[in-house]
Amino acid sequence: MLVQEDEPQMATNPKVVAVDETAGSGKGRTRSPAYPFINLEAAIKRAQEFYDHELRNAASLKIAVKHWGYQEKSSGGLQTTAALISFGLMEDEGSGDKRKLKLTPKAIRMLLDKRPDSSDRAQAIKEFALNPKLHRDLWDKWGNSLPSEDQVRYTLTAEWEPPFNEKTVDAFIKEYKDTISFAKLSESDKFTSEGESNGGHRDGKYVPKVGDFVQWESAGILQFPQPKVVTGISSDGAFAFVEGSPTGLPIYELTKEEGASVPLHFSYKLPDPPSKTNVQEDVFSIAEGRVVIQWPSPLSAESIQDLKDWLKIVERKIARSTQSSEAQTK
């Protein structure tokens, strides 16, 4: 894992989560769940640095990382970007050379709130702290009454699904503790089992319910020609299933279409919701954009082998498409 010398050695990027601790050993890799590369206090400082240069404007990724002292394609710059997005401080749009970053409206309000003892700023920081899914899960489990560090380490490496790599778990524990301490979270700052925060929303955002009509926006582009009805929610509350699609959609990318409704002459019966399978997601950031993979958990040994065979086919298809694109440019 590459960590720039001027950065504290905290956790890996919430999107670049593949850490190969066994490279060259002939053994398989163990990938820890997604978690932020830096703690919230450091992330807010990075957000302030971006605001000092760009104010409310968007900036290209290569310009943004330079504001933080990184080279254009450095892993530290990509990891810092992913951490700020994970906390809800930034959002991105586009891909490759056209990828841009900007501060979220909520982050801007927090940065501009210089009032002494501002309750609004304090509340926003608490919500930012619980934005990363893994942070929410641990807060729901233990609140601010963490057990011993040995017990936390055992839970994350032996009982968590997917489990943490033993070589990176301590970095995450430090990042999580630092973030929770900085945010000054109390026992009342919890998310419900359905994944809703105080007031019924996560980070002030819409939480869909079965029967709602929604629009899906990804990378700044609306994905549905017409709103679709929600048919189910994943057991972890992170994904929603819509009519006509077996793939879970990230809830934070959905918005409710208030005016949408089923026509009176149309008889529609909601299908049975998907089974209570936990949907896992891994997001890997590269220079051209984000690569997203979702899979149900747990998987049988046969399904894991099938998945490995399928990934080899995907690898060949990607290689062929790249070779074809290069040939066309010559």
Describe this structure in words.
The protein is an alpha+beta fold. The chain has three domains: 144 residues, no CATH class; 74 residues; 50 residues, no CATH class. It has nine helices and eleven strands. Strands 4, 5, 6, 7, 8 and 9 form a six-stranded antiparallel beta sheet that branches. Strands 1-3-2 form a three-stranded antiparallel beta sheet. A two-stranded antiparallel ribbon has the order 10-11. It is globular, with a radius of gyration of 21 Å. The N terminus is likely disordered.
Would you report the number of β strands? 11
Q: How many structural units, i.e. domains?
A: 3
- Rg computed from alpha carbons, rounded to a whole number of angstroms: 21 Å
Overall residue-averaged pLDDT value:
77
Spell out the helices and strands N to C.
HEHHEEHHHHHEEEEEEEEH
- Gap from first CA to last CA: 36 Å
- Choose one word for the global shape: globular
Ranges where pLDDT stays below 50 over 5 or more residues in a row are 1-27, 191-204, 262-270
How many DSSP H or I helices? 9
Helix content: 25-40%
